[in-house]
Specification:
This protein is mainly alpha-helical and about 100 residues long. About 45% of the residues lie in helices and about 10% in strands. The chain has four helices and two strands; from the N terminus they run αβαβαα. A two-stranded parallel sheet has the order 1-2. The radius of gyration is 15 Å and the shape is globular. The two termini are about 20 Å apart.
């Protein structure tokens, strides 16, 4: 979907807290034919609602204006047995998977 939006001239703003994921996102978007949009990547912990609010206010809105479309593609997969996962890991997963966009 990101590549299609780039061809349509839509500015993409990608939020993530891991630099490796930034680089993977950028490399997957390189060389899109007829792309006329910009890609802005901002470091943000999506499990921290205060940080998300600050990033939207101070960086996203200040730099790009009103957000017209929001696509939440954030997710954490806990790839181990339920009994081997800590309470904190479950909370972090719920925070990102279900509440990050709120």
């Amino acid at each position: 979907m990101a590549k299609l939006l780039m061809v349509k001239g839509v500015t993409l703003i990608i939020l993530d807290e891991q630099e490796a994921k930034f680089k993977a996102a950028l490399s997957s978007l390189e060389g899109v034919e007829n792309a006329t949009s910009k890609v802005d990547i901002i470091k943000c912990n999506l499990a921290d609602s205060r940080e998300v609010e600050r990033v939207f206010r101070d960086e996203v809105t200040a730099k790009h204006g009103r957000v017209q479309v929001l696509i939440n593609n954030a997710a954490i997969a806990l790839l181990k047995p339920f009994t081997a996962t800590s309470f904190e890991e479950h909370c972090h997963s719920v925070q990102v998977n279900q509440l990050a966009y709120v």
